[in-house]
Amino acid sequence: MGLILRKLRKQAYSVLATVSVIVACMSGLTYAADHVSSVTIVSDRSGQRLQVDGENFMINGMNWDYFPIGTTYSYSLWDQADHIIKTVLDREMVLLKDMGVNTIRMYAGIPPRWVKYIYEKFGIFTILNHTFARYGFKVNGVWIQNVDYSDPNLQKALMAEVTAFVNEYKDVPGVLMWLLGNENNYGLFWEGAETEDIPDDGIVESVRARHMYSLFNDAINTIHKLDSKHPVAIANGDLLFVDIIAEEIENLDVFGSNVYRGISFGDFFQVVKDKLDVPVLFTEFGADAFNAKEMREDQENQSKYLLANWQEIYEQSSGKGRVGNAIGGMTFQFSDGWWKYGQSSNLDVHDINASWANGGYTADLTDGQNNMNEEWFGVCAKEPIDSTGYYTLHPRLAYKALKRVHSLNPYASNIDSVSVMTHFTKIRQLLK
């Protein structure tokens, strides 16, 4: 029944009328001031794709944040003075735009006016992310670190916050879609926010997962009632509990997932097609720029993994003769997070400790040892804050690679699987 309802909803969603105020310019497509885009999902024989105001749109995305060296997760750019925020955005969004990034992922908390500013000045959309109690939640005035999604009090409080979240941003120019959660399925296993090894399904956690995804479903229903212009996605951890998702969520527009499988996403596209039949958005993926085996910075292997991942995304987009359900991805991440390992200690140290193991990243894999360096995922390295109060970024080889990747429009009329492969082959040759 869930699959049938999803298909009916997608058919209705794909024929929503859109009013385009697109203005052509030398740098691509821009929009009139205060224009709120209509974002739809289109499904046909060629596959599934995202459209913005009736135009096919590949999400060339980036997980973006701003954390000066010495700060931790409690730091917020949005608490700073307006002139500081504007200077930061003007410096960093220029680099993102130059790389071909058209979308960033931001958590709730960014003031709506800055979403609009980023969009109208740089042409970059924002995917707005509510964590959905992933890192704790306040219920009746009491902070709960590890929530119980079956608790009626939590459900009521969380739905009220999601409602307020959508109402705050739904008419803001630059919003691309709603995103709920961030690996909340892993949060059923992990005690804190720091990344650990990927868990296997567990009986107790499966019961808890069913309550959680049922509440996700309620939230998606609520958002659809509040806003018909933007689709809703979740940010799952890989495919863990995908069968429960299929049973509990009947109204999902986009399956977002944080996926770290190394050189290839493997069967991911086909599994999502078979079990959920919705488009795929990689809300996080990437590779660190540190070689845990050789104990050195390794820009070449970081670029190798990112090129392979983006090639698969483009090849799996609509019209290439494959599964056809990839609508883009959000590379993780723009600049290194010096606070990621430990999170409250050694904040001025670029830690080289690997915090988890992943067999998909064979370049620095040693049996029995961790190889994923959380503080080195940036496509840009950063310096300490200088005398002006800002830090300088140094684009890595991955930045240059992605700039070339995003120069291709995979939805152009003359682009097929062969031309995608040729495009990436040329990039690899140029980077040698």
What are the salient characteristics of this protein?
432 residues, alpha/beta, TIM Barrel, eight-stranded parallel barrel, three-stranded antiparallel beta sheet, 11 helices, 33% helix, disordered N terminus
Topology:
Layout: H1 2-14, E1 22-25, E2 28-31, E3 39-44, E4 47-52, E5 55-56, E6 59-63, H2 82-99, E7 103-107, H3 112-122, E8 125-130, E9 137-139, E10 142-144, H4 152-169, E11 175-180, H5 184-187, H6 203-226, E12 232-237, H7 242-248, E13 254-258, H8 268-275, E14 280-285, E15 290-291, E16 296-297, H9 299-315, E17 326-331, E18 380-382, E19 393-395, H10 397-405, H11 417-430
Parallel strand pairs: 6-7, 6-17, 7-8, 8-11, 11-12, 12-13, 13-14, 14-17
Antiparallel strand pairs: 1-2, 3-4, 4-5, 9-10, 15-16, 18-19
Helix pairs in contact: 4-6, 9-10, 9-11
Structure explained in plain terms:
By secondary structure, the protein is of the alpha/beta class. The chain has one domain (2-430): Alpha-Beta Barrel (TIM Barrel), CATH 3.20.20. It contains eleven helices and 19 strands. The chain has helices at 2-14, 82-99, 112-122, 152-169, 184-187, 203-226, 242-248, 268-275, 299-315, 397-405, 417-430; strands at 22-25, 28-31, 39-44, 47-52, 55-56, 59-63, 103-107, 125-130, 137-139, 142-144, 175-180, 232-237, 254-258, 280-285, 290-291, 296-297, 326-331, 380-382, 393-395. The chain has an eight-stranded parallel β-barrel with strand order 6-7-8-11-12-13-14-17, surrounded by four helices. Helix 4 (152-169) packs parallel to helix 6 (203-226), helix 9 (299-315) packs parallel to helix 10 and helix 9 (299-315) runs antiparallel to helix 11. The chain is globular and about 55 Å long. The termini are far apart.
